[in-house]
Write a structure and sequence with these properties.
heterodimer; A: 422 residues; mainly beta; 8-stranded antiparallel beta sheet; 35 strands; 5% helix; 52% strand; globular; B: 959 residues; alpha+beta; 10-stranded mixed beta sheet; 34 helices; 28 strands; 46% helix
């Protein structure tokens, strides 16, 4: 090969290969396999358990998985949950006095039932939520007092923003706008002084760092109400037991925009839509008396364009009860704890939303005792659970139902939402 | 006037006496000193002089000659009428008017001590001394250039620091007052001592150039040696006041040792020994030194400042040695440098090479400035060695490779390399890392310059090429991604290629030495990053193809084989996978720039450079394009891609060197050539400007130090790092988009850079991470991680990792110790080694130690070599008996034997390298080449004279 050939060969080869290189796209990194997302919460927290001689709680756990129960921020060692379906223990056995948040490490349902004499309150146990939740049904009007409980059961500190709402509109004291909850502790915010005079009070809770579980305790002249915080939803079901008086539906906006809502009544001949309608202002609280939209023994469905939090608050003379709504209808329900008072029997209230007559089965877990009850369509049926002593029960039916549970006495109502199963 | 002849060894005394007899000024008395260190007791009697050489009147001082045994007796023998004493060395030949000139000028200038101009006997008026200065340590400094001729340029009477007693006129009263010459001292030192004492006594020491004497250069009394050194030290001890001695003594000692060490680097042992012997000798002579100081004190008129006036700054010896080292370095990278010391010294600072070396040194200083101040950045695979020999044992000794959950497979050899360097620097890991980094940069530059010269480029072109190699786009991508092992390999690679590319000339000894050097450098490259070795045979084949020097293929294979031998344990394990997949392929910024640069350079070069350089141009172009394509090729493992980038770097460097040579021709052609060079060079400038040798910003220095502070058992704790793969120190494992790795608590070291192949424990750890840190199946991920000895979890910023599970757990406490890192402390009891009773055992890099009676669980991948009484645990871990208080890993004998073989081969190669070094033949003259003599890289009669061998002239070196 003579000299010019060599030179031009070098140029052509280098150019060709370089152009080839320019056209070779860099080897794309193989798409890594997707990782699974966060699994189901393997725990629940009971924010408003009580320990002590006067007003004490019983913790009920319904779980088929072994686990532990322990007091957050102190108390004795953990108590084993055997995982045989129903377990209950007295919170007083775990701690000595006062508000005692409890961490239940198992994939089941749990609730606390607190009582003193003829006064009772029941509230569910829930996992922490990354989104906004609302603590509903508080009041600091004369004769009432309310305390909000923020619980951080985890090892990392949590920081939350609070947004209050009352009949005065958006209503947040400056010192409550941001609250830090150290790891494995709880913070009780007594609102009686700082927010005195609110007839209806609700707080939105948003965690900026970490997670918290919120709850509230409300004391009336002769009764106590407790409730866990409620996450927002666009649909809420409420059974309306015939207590002899009506409660009121509390709707709380957790969004930054106004939202329209509608209330439908469930009655034996079907659902009557739009018995109540309105617009819920952003971050505000609206109170709708039940008597305006439905009567005792029926049920209501609250729908909203943007997710809202909803609860029914019962106030009659000295009686106080706060019951978060239920976001879905289904055929099987878990009642983690049965509440029993000397003057009252454990009760489940079942709203038949299926539009046809149903038969419900009430089974005390771990005990060979099964009750049945007929459920007329569109009606809320109260069923006494016979022989209940605190353990969990399961309610199932041959159609969609909505279940609340609790206890009635002459001077107290305790009512909470059951937990859907499956 | 009396003449004192200081007899010298040899037979020149007759000539000296004859020359004295021919003096215009006739001395009144002649004393011959016949014994002592200055004289030869067997010197002949003056009456037996050569009668033909004498003046017609015969010996004018006949009958006035006497002999003394010792210089100390001179004063006793002098007649009372003697006014001046002329001390003359016994092998000196003074011109007939030397004495009269001395006397005349001494009287005229009121001198006390006067010396003659000393010319070298047998030369054509080459100067030896015209009076001398010293440094503060007494080291003489003549100020003359080597080979400097006497053109009367110094012919003026002036004061000097001292004159040697080769020809020294002293006032008799002063000589008496000072007690004469110090009989303990050698010739030059005695002159220095007498001159200094004379000056301190208020006398003037002058040189009289009109008085000329000839003195042989090979006079035994004039040669450097420990006696001269000791004498100068004694002169210093006698002359200086205590306050001066207080700083001169220690600094003199340090300067002497530093100079001696520098001379050691030059292959000379004697200077260091002379310094040490000198001090020892002076300790022995302390009593007489003290006596001499007392004697001087009685006559001292002035302070030490008078001596300082005639001294030069700094240490003359040290400066000379450093200069010689610099010259030697220039020769190392440019074997066309002159051989002769005189020639080098004369031309050192007038040659382009010296200027280029100075500029490149400045470039190195700039490009590594942050490393000098802050150490080598700890990021990516740029990690300091551990302060123990664990790395060496893990890579060459068959020991446990404790990276991640550990493995019995040998660690990559870089772990051993780091451990050895750390040992050599006395257990300073940061210094070891810095030494390796800076050393590699310098070696890469020097090697590339040498390689470019080998390929026929000029020195300047070589320097530009070197910077393209070290800082060009492809190298910048590699080093910027923290591929420190590739930087170390880059330091050796040009030297390996130089060995392969060099022609086969020279005798067998030189050839063997060259192969050994090639094997040694190949071993170094392989120790840094073994896959790099694959480049050597490929480059050899390309070189052979383009230059038709087929022997290069054999050389390449031989050198590769030797290099593989130096990493025998790693080769025996045959486990390249973890290296090749340890990190993603670095991204070359401005991807289009490299092919454009290559095409421009090849185009410019192919069109305009000389025929003889086409081969190297094609060689460089092939490497530049081939390496780049290899890096881009789909499916190629990242490690091979990185080797491709390194090949592209060296190819680009050679292209640069060739293109720079297109400097001859029209201006527009030069401009085009320079523009194509600039394309290569711009990224290199950016790399150098970074100041970290292209390495990324430090991420991990002391970053995990909080573990040592906060952990209860830091020596038995691991840290789980989760973050982007590129930000993790060393290699990581991946779970989908999440990368993670385990590191030892508190420090990420070189031994942990590469993770071994995944084993049962690694699989179990991955499952725990998925279940407990991602799915969040329970609230206690800390307890699950504690099984692996994980005491801390650190999530790096930018990690594609959902921390929801970490937000809802109860045994990993968020700990605010670093604003950039999300750090969780494991609240569950965790340790790498724990007894059944919960007692923790410490890990020292190779062994677990603690106290226990029962069994100890070791959270390392299960391996039956752990003991004593090993048993598996949980399907992946180990338990051993704790009764001995120690859990040890029995070394793998195959790996250990391979390691010993590598060590033996290393020793053998070192010996052969030293044995194969041929001292360069000194040229007899420093004359420049004639104009018609072909220069390196030029074409002559259509035959190129490039690719020259060491120790041969450019012309002889053709094969």
């Amino acid at each position: 090969m003579n000299d010019p050939w060599r030179r031009w060969t070098a140029i052509v080869a280098a150019s060709g290969l370089s152009i080839l290189g320019l056209f070779i796209a860099p080897t794309p990194a193989a798409n890594p396999p997707e990782l699974p997302g966060l699994g189901a919460d393997p725990y629940v927290v009971c924010p408003v358990g009580e320990a002590g001689g006067g007003f004490s709680s019983r913790l009920g756990v319904s779980s088929w998985q072994a686990g532990t129960v322990r007091v957050i921020g102190g108390g004795g060692g953990p108590v084993e949950v055997p995982g045989d379906g129903a377990f209950f223990t007295e919170v007083g056995d775990l701690a000595e006095l006062g508000t005692t948040p409890i961490l239940v490490e198992t994939a089941g349902t749990a609730a606390t039932y607190s009582r003193a004499g003829t006064v009772a309150a029941v509230s569910g146990c829930v996992p922490g939520s990354r989104g906004s939740v609302a603590v509903m049904g508080m009041s600091t009007a004369e004769g009432d007092g309310s305390t909000m409980v923020l619980v951080n059961p985890f090892a990392s500190p949590a920081s939350v923003r609070l947004a209050g709402a009352s009949e005065f509109g958006v209503d947040t004291p400056t010192d409550l706008e941001e609250v830090t909850v150290p790891p494995s502790t709880s913070v009780e915010l007594v609102l009686d002084q700082s927010m005195a005079g609110r007839q209806s009070l609700s707080f939105g809770v948003v965690a900026d760092a970490g997670l918290v579980v919120a709850g509230m305790k409300r004391s009336g002249p002769s009764d106590v109400a407790t409730s866990e915080a409620v996450a927002a939803s666009t649909q809420w079901f409420f059974a309306l037991p015939d207590f002899g008086f009506d409660g009121s539906i509390h709707l709380r906006s957790l969004s930054e925009v106004d939202t329209a809502y509608r209330i439908d009544r469930i009655q034996p001949d079907g659902v009557v839509e739009g018995v109540g309608e309105g617009t819920l202002v952003a971050q505000s609280l609206e109170v709708i008396p039940v008597e305006n939209v439905a009567g005792p023994g029926s049920g209501v469905i609250v729908s909203a364009v943007e997710p809202v939090a909803a609860a029914i608050v019962y106030t009659f003379e000295g009686v106080r009860a706060v019951t978060p709504g239920i976001t879905q209808e289904t055929a099987r329900w878990s009642v983690p704890v049965t509440a029993v008072l000397n003057e009252g029997q454990a009760t489940v209230w079942i709203l038949n939303t299926s539009g046809q007559a149903l038969t419900a089965t009430i089974e005390r877990i771990g005990v060979p005792a099964v009750q049945t009850a007929q459920l007329p369509p569109g009606m809320t049926t109260g069923v006494f659970v016979t022989g209940a002593r605190g353990g969990a029960i399961e309610v199932s039916a041959n159609g969609n139902i909505v279940v609340f549970y609790g206890v009635l006495s002459g001077s107290s109502i305790a009512i909470a939402a059951a937990v859907p199963v499956g | 006037m009396a003449v004192v002849v200081l007899s010298a060894p040899g037979s020149r005394l007759n000539e000296t006496m004859t020359a004295i007899a021919r003096q215009v000024y006739v001395p009144a008395q002649v004393i011959q000193v016949g014994r002592s260190g200055l004289a030869d007791p067997d010197s002949p009697d003056p009456n037996s002089l050569d009668q033909d050489a004498l003046p017609p009147q015969g010996v004018p001082f006949a009958g006035r000659v006497s002999r003394v045994e010792d210089v100390g007796q001179i004063l006793d023998r002098l007649d009372d009428r003697i006014e001046f004493v002329w001390l003359i060395h016994g092998d000196t030949r003074p011109r007939p008017d030397a004495l009269v000139a001395l006397l005349r000028e001494t009287r005229r200038h009121d001198g006390s001590v006067a010396g003659s101009k000393v010319l070298i006997e047998g030369s054509d008026d080459r100067l030896d001394s015209v009076g001398e200065a010293t440094d503060v340590f007494g080291e003489p400094y003549s100020g003359l250039d080597p080979e400097e001729l006497d053109l009367e340029q110094y012919d003026v009477v002036r004061e000097v620091a001292f004159v040697p007693p080769i020809s020294m006129l002293v006032r008799r009263d002063l000589l008496s007052g000072l007690g004469g010459l110090d009989s303990e001292l050698s010739l030059d030192a005695a002159g220095l001592d007498l001159s200094q004492r004379a000056r301190l006594a208020g006398g003037r020491v002058i040189v009289v150039p009109s008085s000329e004497v000839f003195h042989p250069l090979d006079c035994p009394d004039h040669q450097p040696g420990w006696r001269q050194q000791a004498g100068r030290q004694r002169a210093m001890l006698i002359a200086y006041r205590p306050i001066t001695l207080a700083w001169v003594l220690p600094t003199g000692l340090l300067a002497g040792i530093a100079d001696g060490l520098g001379q050691l680097l030059l292959g000379r042992v004697r200077p260091l020994l002379a310094t040490l012997f000198g001090w020892v000798w002076n300790v022995g002579k302390l009593a007489s030194t003290v006596a001499a100081r007392r004697a001087l004190r009685r006559v001292r008129q002035v302070g030490d400042e008078e001596l300082f006036r005639f001294q030069v700054a700094g240490s003359v010896r040290l400066r000379k040695t450093l200069s010689e080292l610099g010259e030697r370095f220039s020769r190392a990278i440019d074997d066309q440098e002159p051989d002769s010391l005189a020639e080098r010294t004369v031309h050192a600072w007038t040659k382009p090479t010296a200027i280029l070396v100075a500029l490149s040194s400045l470039g190195v200083a700039i490009a590594t400035r942050e490393i000098w101040f802050a150490g080598t950045p700890v990021a990516g695979f740029s990690l300091p060695p551990a302060d123990n020999l664990g790395g060496l044992i893990a890579s060459y000794g068959g020991g446990w490779h404790s990276s991640g959950l550990g493995s019995s497979v040998p660690a990559p050899p870089i772990a051993g390399l780091g451990a050895i360097v750390n040992l050599l620097v006395g257990g300073r890991p940061e210094i070891a890392a810095t030494l390796l980094t800076v050393g590699s940069v310098v070696a890469a530059l020097a090697g590339t310059i040498r390689l470019a010269r080998r390929a026929g480029a000029s020195s300047g072109a070589g320097h530009l090429a070197a910077w393209v190699y070290v800082g060009g786009a492809t190298s910048a991508a590699l080093f910027g991604a923290g591929q420190w092992p590739l930087l170390l390999a880059a330091g050796s690679l040009p030297w390996v290629l130089d060995s392969v590319l060099s022609p086969t000339s020279g005798d067998w000894r030189a050839r063997l030495g060259r192969y050994a050097r090639g094997g040694l450098t190949a071993g170094l490259a392989a120790a840094a990053y073994p896959p790099v070795l694959a480049l050597v045979p490929v480059a050899a084949i390309l070189w052979a193809a383009f230059t038709r020097r087929w022997f290069a293929v054999l050389t390449g294979l031989a050198v590769t084989a030797l290099g593989l031998g130096l990493v025998a344990p790693f080769v025996a394990a045959g486990n390249l996978w973890p290296l090749l997949t340890a990190a993603p392929l670095p991204v070359v910024e401005f991807r289009w720039l490299w092919p454009v640069s290559v095409v421009a350079a090849v185009g410019v070069g192919a069109l305009w450079i000389g025929k003889s350089r086409l081969g190297p141009l094609a060689f460089g172009g092939s490497l530049a394009v081939g390496g780049w394509l290899l890096a881009l090729a789909p499916g190629v493992l990242a490690g091979w891609g990185m080797v491709g980038l390194l090949a592209a770097s060296i190819g680009g460097a050679l292209l640069t060197a060739m293109v720079v040579e297109v400097a001859e021709g029209p201006t527009w052609r030069r401009l085009v050539a320079l523009a194509s060079v600039a394309l290569f060079l711009v990224p290199a400038v950016a790399t150098a400007a970074g100041g970290r040798a292209g390495l990324p910003v430090d991420r991990w220095s002391d970053r995990l130090g909080f573990v040592n502070t906060l952990a209860e058992f830091p020596l038995s704790t691991r840290v789980l790092l989760i973050g982007p793969a590129a930000d993790l120190p060393g290699a990581g494992r991946s779970l989908g988009p999440v990368a993670y790795r385990l590191v030892d608590a508190g420090a990420v070291t070189l031994e942990q850079a590469y993770l071994p192949n995944s084993q049962a424990g690694d699989v179990a750890l991955a499952e725990v991470i998925v279940d407990h840190l991602i799915l969040g199946t329970d609230l206690r991920p800390g307890a699950a991680l504690a099984e692996f000895g994980v005491g801390w979890v650190v999530v790096l910023p930018g990690a594609d990792f959902d921390t929801q599970a970490l937000d809802r757990q109860i045994d990993l406490a968020l700990t605010p110790v670093d604003p950039e890192l999300t750090v969780y402390e494991n609240l569950a009891p965790s340790a790498r080694a724990m007894t059944e009773d919960g007692d923790v055992w410490d890990w020292d890099g190779q062994t677990y130690r603690g106290e226990a009676d029962g069994r100890v669980r070791l959270a390392d991948n299960a391996d039956g070599r752990w003991g004593p009484d090993w048993a598996p645990d949980a399907g992946w871990a180990n338990t051993v008996s704790g009764e001995g208080g120690e859990a040890v890993f029995a070394p793998d004998s195959t790996t250990r034997v391979a390691g010993l073989a590598s060590g033996a081969l290393l020793a053998l190669l070192l010996i052969v390298v030293v044995w194969g070094i041929r001292k360069p033949t000194r040229r007899t003259s420093a004359k420049p080449r004639s104009a018609n003599q072909p220069q390196v890289g030029e074409e002559s009669d259509g035959v190129d004279n490039r690719y020259v061998d060491d120790g041969t002239s450019p012309i002889e070196g053709r094969s």
